[in-house]
């Protein structure tokens, strides 16, 4: 509201139309006339290695009304700012290490910050995006885009299992270990962590909420492994939430040293239907010879699932 009052936006967002195009790539098109005419003229980018130029517009020149918040580590000067030429509602910018005046190239620190912001959001509509210099980035100063989008893009259907195999972390390659924890599995988990930390393997510990008494040992093991880990070593920990929302099963040391990702069930029927429908790609929905009937059956199934999930909240009724 303060930014609007001081007229730091170049226009008031007024999207005329948005839709996903038919075809292989499902491009999203948007009719946003004001952005075409009123946005800041893009910087002339001629190379992916183009250095930062302090004479051109950059984010150190933002006025205070354009800055939304500092991410609480002033030594790195990570801030979130408005996008004066938005393409979606709540469109803002993540500016990692702003005062270092880095060019528009992904850094490890900026990627971590972007993933953390995405993970902390409770909305399934938030998007975190990066456009490189030769992908029409208009400012050669390191930034990420944050906005909300109700459409699903093709990239979001990426097969994570296939990606893991392309990175050569597989069960067959003996460098990906999955340990389902229960009573008696703790020593196996400790041996697997030690092996993986030395050899650069990936470890997935599932159901750690079932071995609550062992978690302080896991915390110490993680602290030991953090001193000189292999570059490729990764530890994934999966747990159900605590029944008591005021009490945490996972020790603070584990939480603080981890990137936290939550997957909470939708709280309403409509959100539950959306989540269920997201399991079906457009290609799947159009693959049936009787497309209309198939889509109707899928929707009915998702609706039925949402009703049952909502009904479960109230327990058995006599």
UniProtKB/TrEMBL annotation:
It comes from the Eukaryota. GO terms for molecular function: GDP-D-glucose phosphorylase activity; guanyl-nucleotide exchange factor activity; hydrolase activity; minus-end-directed microtubule motor activity; nucleotide binding. Residues 162-262 form the Dynein heavy chain region D6 P-loop domain. Gene3D superfamilies: P-loop containing nucleotide triphosphate hydrolases (3.40.50.300), Region D6 of dynein motor (1.10.8.720). Pfam families: Dynein_heavy, GDPGP1_N. GO terms for biological process: glucose metabolic process; microtubule-based movement. GO terms for cellular component: cytoplasm; dynein complex. Residues 2-147 form the GDPGP1-like N-terminal domain. InterPro entries: AAA_lid_11_sf, Dynein_heavy_D6_P-loop, GDPGP, GDPGP1_N, P-loop_NTPase. This is Dynein axonemal heavy chain 9-like isoform X2. The gene is LOC105666845.
